[in-house]
Write a structure and sequence with these properties.
The complex is a heterodimer of chains A (258) and B (284). Chain A is an alpha/beta fold and 258 residues long. Chain A is built from 8 helices and 10 strands. Chain A has 2 domains: 4-77 and 155-257, 3-Layer(aba) Sandwich (Rossmann fold), CATH 3.40.50; 86-152, no CATH class. In chain A, the strands form 2 sheets. Chain A has a 6-stranded mixed sheet, with helices on both faces. Chain A has a 4-stranded antiparallel sheet with strand order 2-1-4-5, covered by helices on one side. The radius of gyration of chain A is 19 Å and the shape is globular. Chain B has 284 residues and is mainly α. Chain B has 2 domains: 2-66, no CATH class; 80-283, MetI-like fold. Chain B has helices at residues 2-22, 35-56, 63-66, 69-82, 84-116, 118-133, 140-147, 151-175, 179-187, 192-229, 235-244, 248-276, 278-283. Chain B is globular, with a radius of gyration of 24 Å. Classes of the chains: A alpha/beta (258), B mainly alpha (284).
Chain lengths: 258, 284
């Protein structure tokens, strides 16, 4: 049974008399333990879909299901990570990472122990007492990942999480993400506009049209796992998939130009 | 007032010369001198102004008008050595602190409450601004009527001056809270009170403190005005009494005491803010 289900989702934003149609007629099913990448032109409404799965606001039409139940309120089963870091700037790394356990009412010793272990796991040991403003962009992403994983969600919603990083750091984060996914096999829904990132990470790539977002095409990525994030992009199969998706994606960008 | 200023200019020109002999480079780097040199220069400016005041008094301006630093110091010393000033300082501090705390508490609570409730803030908006535009000092007679001649009416006046400054800042601070931060906590199963204590209040802290800091002198103003209108103790009463007795030195002495109090209050709020906002200082 799919863990997430979108049934003929539509979303219109209203501000005064202005109406923006962000999403139209989207049907999508996400299998458990899979990584699915949503790709499309920037600002096409992919993030809107994630926000609706997270239950931050309801769709205008259609229904969102998570684990067989309709999402009516904030969906606390998912971990959400956006391009912005969303670490609390007045807390040090340790207190930031331990926050989910703090909210769950665990004791200080317990949550610090778990947070330290998780920081170790994402290669951020030794930075416990630093404030977010003292960290580099990549370290902040690691801290966000650690916080999200500590909370133990079954599914991760990632909204262009690595867009702000430079190319080398992004590859390192892809590596880390795949390693962490290999351990717990959470369902991951990844929004990106980077086709290489999408193919490197995902089992399935869903291409969206420009606004309002509709599904243009889908492609199954049959590259074998575990994947070497550095090497996989130079394989022949990767190139074929890349070209096939890019042909479809380019139409969206071409129309944009006209 | 213009005469002592004019008389000061040649003296300052002379002080420039003495200061320049202490510095290695002349001219543009004057603003970049070290902290201690600057402190020395600041003290020098203060002493020079006092000297000019002392000289001008009785020579350029009648001493009855501006008294003189020596007379003021003398008066202050009299009050301190007799212990008489303690009563007045105590009364002013008491009313100021109490008024400040009450006003600050009400301002923060009101600001957070309305900041989190778009409906209430829209509903009450015109009334709040109308009340804010009212010169609160004009409420003094009303407070004296309600709370009597004692400390309560001063506390009320100080509090009502403080409450709006703190309210407006807290309100803006709460409105400025990053909604993505709030959403990210909601997804981590945060309850309403968690969001308030772990996101809203900390992120509004610098706004709240900006309000508290501006409010400190106003708390003092409220108290002093209350004391000047009707009281039998307090520094405001002291200014008022000395003025009525044509005791210029006494007026200045009381003003000095008020200025010292204002500086101490301000430093205390600043110290608390620095402690609470270490993360900001470190991040710079």
């Amino acid at each position: 049974m799919p863990v997430m289900q979108l049934r003929s989702i539509g979303k219109t934003f209203r501000k005064g008399t202005d109406e923006v149609r962000a999403v139209e007629g989207v049907d999508l099913e996400i299998e458990p333990h899979s990584i699915v990448a949503l790709i499309g032109p920037s600002g096409c409404g992919k993030s809107t879909l994630l926000n609706m799965i997270a239950g931050l606001y309801p769709p205008s039409e259609g229904e969102v299901f998570y684990g067989g139940r309709r999402v009516a309120d904030v969906n606390t089963n998912v971990g959400y990570m956006t391009q912005k870091d969303n670490l609390l700037p007045w807390r040090n790394v340790l207190d930031n990472v331990a926050l989910p356990l703090e909210l769950a009412g665990r004791s200080r010793a317990e949550r610090y122990e778990a947070a330290r272990a998780m920081l170790e796991h994402v290669d951020l040991a030794g930075f416990e007492s630093k404030f977010p403003s003292e960290l580099s962009g990549g370290m902040r992403k690691r801290a966000c990942l650690a916080r999200m994983l500590l909370y133990g969600p079954q599914a991760l919603l990632l909204d262009e999480p690595f867009a702000a990083l430079d190319a080398q750091l992004r590859i390192a984060m892809h590596d880390l993400l795949l390693r962490l996914w290999g351990e717990n096999k959470q369902t991951i829904l990844l929004v990106t506009h980077d086709l290489v990132e999408a193919i490197t990470l995902a089992d399935r790539v869903v291409v969206f049209t420009k606004r309002p977002a509709r599904i243009a095409s889908e492609e199954v990525i049959d590259l074998p796992r575990p994947r070497d994030v550095m090497e996989v992009r130079f394989t022949e199969r990767f190139r074929e998939i890349y070209n096939s998706i890019w042909d479809r994606l380019r139409q969206e960008y071409d129309e944009e130009k006209l | 007032m213009s005469t002592p200023d004019d008389a000061k200019l040649p003296d300052e020109a002379r002080s420039e010369q003495t200061a320049s002999s202490l510095r290695p480079s002349v001219g543009r780097s004057l603003a970049e001198v070290s902290g201690t040199t600057m402190l020395a220069m600041q003290i020098l400016v203060g002493l020079l102004s006092l000297a000019v005041w002392q000289i001008a008094s009785g020579w350029l301006v009648h001493e009855f008008m501006i008294s003189s630093p020596l007379a003021v110091m003398n008066r202050l010393w009299q009050w301190i050595s007799s212990g008489a000033i303690l009563l007045h300082v105590g009364a002013t501090v008491h009313a100021t602190v109490l008024g400040f705390l009450i006003g600050a508490f009400a301002g923060v609570v009101g600001g957070v409450w309305l900041g989190l409730s778009p409906f209430l803030s829209r509903l009450l908006n015109p009334y709040i601004w109308a009340f804010n535009a009212l010169p609160k000092v004009a409420l003094a007679p009303l407070f004296i009527l309600w709370f009597g001649l004692g400390i309560d009416s001063k506390v009320a006046l100080a509090a009502v001056l403080v409450v709006f400054l703190v309210f407006v800042n807290t309100f803006s601070g709460v409105r400025e809270v990053d909604s993505e931060l709030v959403d990210s906590l909601r997804l981590m199963r945060a309850k309403r009170r968690h969001i308030l204590t772990k996101v809203v209040l900390p992120s509004a802290t610098s706004w709240i403190f900006a309000g508290l800091r501006t409010a400190v002198p106003y708390a003092l103003i409220g108290t002093i005005i209350g004391e000047m209108i009707a009281a039998n103790r307090g520094l405001g009463y002291l200014v008022q009494r000395a003025g009525a007795e044509f005791d210029t030195a006494g007026v200045f002495a009381a003003l000095v005491a008020i200025a010292v109090l204002a500086v101490i209050f301000n430093e205390m709020v600043g110290a608390v803010q620095t402690r609470l906002e270490r993360w900001k200082v470190v991040g710079r």
